[in-house]
Design a protein that fits this description.
It contains 20 helices and 22 strands. The strands form 5 sheets. Strands 5, 9, 10, 13, 14, 15, 16, 17, 20, 21 and 22 form an 11-stranded mixed sheet that branches. It has a 4-stranded antiparallel sheet with strand order 3-2-1-4. It has a 3-stranded antiparallel sheet with strand order 6-7-8, sandwiched between helices. Strand 6 and strand 7 form a beta hairpin. The chain is elongated, with a radius of gyration of 46 Å.
């Protein structure tokens, strides 16, 4: 057999009795190497280790020399000398000679014979067994790593089994729930308490979180709102990466006060509306708004607790404010003023005002010669105690308009305004307005197929924008307040003007994950009213879950055209056509404006200013739509007014015609006079009816204009308020 290979020294590290082999290691080129060799090969190469039995040697392969020197031989021909590492002396006790050989595939390898050796003594046998148990440092480290790996695998398996037992198979978002739970575990909670001081604010903005309701608990919705301190609100918005990995985006907001889901109405009233009661006794105007998504707790906060479908009005801010008003009247410094308390309750629906205390009679909002806004026909009821106020609230709530939206089945479609008016000798001394705003998700319904829903959404969207700008103008003492942009701000004009005016906004939010988008819209709107800053020191935990930059909306510059430039383009090109499929040209609008004398009305000027100040929320197409809706509302009012005038005139015509017909019954009546008077009556009819017919045609054209403008609203418009 032709064999080639290398004979060298090696150290026995272990003895394998099962397969009669040993594991050996040696140093080669600075690396530790090893292999497993059967005992017959070992005995063949190391004759002194062989047992007493005879070992047949092959005549072809001579026995290798047993030497303790440094040199090693190669078989069949010496080629290279291998020396051990420096400072390392091989030991005869545990070092043996091994061969590393490779045989040709066509031949079989046979172990080389070794010379017979004397039997080992008992001491040598014991020493060999001890040496076999010895292991190198490398092998020990490898075994340690294997043991650690096995222990780690067992721990991971136990953890997986434990988590599998804890997982609720019926929980649709268990992974998100665990993320939120772990995040909350790192927070240092410092909630608002009655011991905290009540700060004085001209504009106070706070947020109230309600608990999960029965419907949300039934579908196992998650609570994604955390209020770690008295002025911080955190939203855990679930997100998904490109690789479908789910994670949380923690967005943080700061306000004057933040109320968690365990806060009562009395607690909310103590920090929000109660400081405003004294304002109306000091000849001031106070306003308190409840803003948020339908079902987030606005009516609960303002009107009182619900027990099924029954509402306990005595625990709402309406009744609590009335109670404190009557308590203040009994104080000596106010009792001598002989003040009287009145109450009004009305709603604003789709730009129209209705009296909730007078069978929902329609009212008109006009400005007098002193530019004071007057609600014509609004009834004021005198109240002498809290019980009188509760009765009025119950009557008004039963008449309020509600309907179905994309977010809720029963949405408040109107703004409800309850006012407590203090008068002295017939003149107004102070006024406290408490407003339950319409659900803010109605502002997203501006592209609905139903015209009535579109008009509702447009009016709500516009009124909320105008309300925000009026409150900001109040806080910054701006010279002009765009209160004419909506009916809501027009009615509340006196609450935004004057140094002795104070406002409070309570933003109510739903905690469920399904309402996360509407909740973020509510918080962003409330944040823009006063523009609070947020810093890491405001967040009571080590990991900052978000920053103000994260919650600010981002828009591409090309998505919006600056409104002033756009208005100049429209003014320079009257025949400019709206974007879309052949919509009516703007020249038609100008013709309508010329006919109706509405080209430069204060309402439209304020609307233009409002849209310029909110370019991020109002796209050019949405601005055009708001223009059409405002013009449509003005035209509707004028058509109705002219129609009533024609109706009254028709009654007079009937009386005149009756006199003419009675005159013809006489034998010798004046035929010439009859013909002249009848012609005059017919001319008047034709003139007035023709004018009314032209306005009705223009009104119908405005309806088509509104419908066309609603189709041009960009589907990828900014988030609704």
């Amino acid at each position: 057999m032709e064999v080639w290979g290398r004979i060298h020294q090696a150290m026995v590290t272990s003895l394998n009795e099962d397969n009669e082999s040993v594991t050996v290691e040696w140093i080669e080129n600075g690396d530790t190497k090893g292999k497993e060799i059967d005992l017959e090969s070992i005995f063949a190469l190391n004759g002194d280790l062989a047992p007493d039995e005879e070992i047949v040697q092959s005549p072809e392969t001579p026995p290798p020399p047993i030497s303790s020197g440094v040199k090693a031989n190669r078989i069949p021909k010496p080629r290279q000398t291998i020396a051990p590492r420096k400072n390392e002396t091989p030991s005869r006790d545990n070092r043996i000679t091994v061969g590393t050989t490779r045989a040709r595939p066509s031949q079989q390898a046979e172990p080389p014979p070794s010379a017979p050796a004397p039997p080992p003594t008992q001491q040598q046998t014991l020493q060999q067994q001890q040496n076999a148990r010895r292991k190198s440092h490398c092998v020990k480290e490898v075994e340690k790593l294997q043991e650690k790996r096995e222990r780690r695998r067992l721990q991971q398996q136990e953890l997986r089994e434990k988590r599998a037992q804890e997982v609720d198979a019926t929980m649709p978002n268990y992974e998100i729930m665990c993320m939120i739970r772990d995040f909350r575990a790192s927070l240092d909670y410092r909630p608002l308490t009655t011991a905290d001081l009540i700060e004085e604010h001209r504009i106070c903005v706070c947020v109230r979180k309600r608990p999960l309701n029965k419907k949300e608990l039934t579908v196992k919705d998650l609570d994604v709102i955390t209020i770690p301190s008295k002025d911080v609100v955190m939203v855990h918005e679930p997100k998904q990466k490109v690789d479908l990995t789910r994670y949380l985006e923690n967005q943080t907001f700061r306000f004057d006060y933040a109320f968690d889901d365990s806060t009562t109405n009395e607690m909310v009233y103590r920090f929000t509306a109660r400081p405003l009661v004294e304002t109306i006794f000091e000849r001031g105007m106070a306003t308190c708004f409840a803003y948020g998504q339908t079902g987030s707790g606005k009516t609960h906060t303002m009107g009182g607790d619900f027990s099924g479908k029954n509402q306990d009005c005595s625990k709402g801010i309406y009744a609590l404010a009335a109670r404190d008003v009557f308590l203040m009247l009994k104080k000596p410094n106010y009792k001598k003023l002989e003040l009287q308390v009145f109450a009004t309750f009305f709603e604003i629906y789709s730009g129209k005002v209705f009296d909730l205390l007078n069978r929902k009679a329609k009212l008109r909002v006009l400005e007098d010669g002193k530019q004071q806004v007057q609600v014509v026909g609004l009834q004021e009821r005198e109240v002498r105690c809290t019980e009188d106020v509760l009765k009025l609230i119950e009557v008004g709530n039963s008449c309020r308009t509600s309907g179905q939206t994309s977010a809720n089945a029963h949405s408040s479609r109107s703004h409800a305004v309850f006012q407590i008016i203090v008068r002295r000798r017939g003149k107004m001394h102070g006024k406290f307005s408490l407003i339950d705003l319409a659900g803010n998700e109605r502002g997203a319904d501006t592209s609905s197929a139903d015209r009535q829903t579109r008009l509702e959404g447009a009016e709500i969207n516009k009124s909320l924008l105008a309300l925000k700008e009026c409150i900001r103008a109040l806080g910054r003492n701006k010279p002009h307040t765009p209160f004419r942009a909506s009916k809501l701000t027009q009615v509340l004009r006196d609450s935004f003007i004057g140094e002795n005016s104070r406002t409070c906004m309570i933003a109510t939010i739903s905690p469920g994950m399904a309402s996360c988008e509407n909740t973020l819209n509510t918080l962003r709107y409330a944040n823009r009213v006063k523009e609070f800053g947020i810093s890491p020191s405001d967040i009571p935990f080590s990991q900052t879950g978000g920053s103000r930059a994260e919650v600010s909306p981002t828009y591409e510059e090309e998505d919006f055209t600056p409104l002033p430039n756009r208005m100049e383009e429209m003014a320079g090109d009257p025949g400019m056509v709206l974007e879309g499929h052949g919509g009516p040209s703007l020249s038609q609008l100008e013709v309508l404006e010329a006919q109706w004398a509405m080209g430069s009305s204060p309402q439209r000027d304020d609307l233009k200013l409002l849209c310029e100040q909110n370019e991020e929320e109002v796209s050019p197409q949405l601005f055009t739509f708001h223009e059409c809706v405002s013009q449509l509302v003005e035209m509707e009012e004028q058509v109705l007014e002219d129609h009533r005038a024609v109706f009254q005139e028709s009654i007079r015509w009937l009386e005149d015609e009756k006199v003419l017909l009675e005159m013809t019954e006489e034998v010798d009546y004046d035929v010439d006079s009859y013909g002249t008077q009848l012609e005059q009556i017919l001319d008047q009819k034709i003139e007035i009816l023709t004018e009314l017919r032209d306005k009705v045609k223009s009104f119908r054209s405005a309806l088509q204009e509104e419908e066309q403008a609603s189709k041009q609203i960009n589907p990828k418009r900014p988030r609704p308020l």
